[in-house]
Amino acid sequence: MPIVTIKDVAVYEAREGERLVRAIKDGGSDIGHRCGGYARCTTCRVRIIDGNPPVMTRAEYDKLQDRNLLGEVRLACQIVVEADIVVDPLMTVSAMGWSDPGPLPEETVTPEPEWMDFPV
């Protein structure tokens, strides 16, 4: 099973194929996901320290490019955990002062993913 290391929080044994945003949440971080995991808000942004996945969704690419964040961060809601990864969640409930992280993202990537090679 892949290991998700959440900077300054925990080490979490994820299920292969689990969405990264859910693994980070289950691993003890209060990561944001204000849009419910649909690549619309970028509140689930993470810095990948090690183990950057080789693919990304078209939705993630479009949103990061639109916000001038492409190459700087990734969206945890659009990443499927398939190997060990070390991440730094950048927007958390506690850091942002939100009352909650947002709706729980579905178990599978939403919207329906169109996968593309990364880096793009």
Q: Can you write the helix and strand succession as a string? A: EEHEEHEEHE
Total number of strands? 7
Shape by Cα distribution: globular
Sheet having the most strands: 5 strands, mixed
Give a quick summary of the entry.
The protein is of the alpha+beta class and about 120 residues long.
Write up this protein.
The chain is an alpha+beta fold and 120 residues long. It is built from three helices and seven strands. The termini are far apart. The protein has a five-stranded mixed sheet with strand order 2-1-6-3-5, with helices on one face. Strands 4-7 form a two-stranded antiparallel ribbon. The chain is 17% helix and 22% strand. The model has no long low-confidence stretch (mean pLDDT 96). The longest helix is centred in the middle third of the chain and has 9 residues, at 58-66.
List keywords for this structure.
single chain; 120 residues; alpha+beta; 5-stranded mixed sheet; two-stranded antiparallel sheet; 3 helices; 17% helix
Helix/strand layout:
Layout: E1 3-6, E2 10-13, H1 20-26, E3 45-50, E4 55-57, H2 58-66, E5 74-75, E6 85-89, H3 93-96, E7 115-117
Parallel strand pairs: 1-6
Antiparallel strand pairs: 1-2, 3-5, 3-6, 4-7
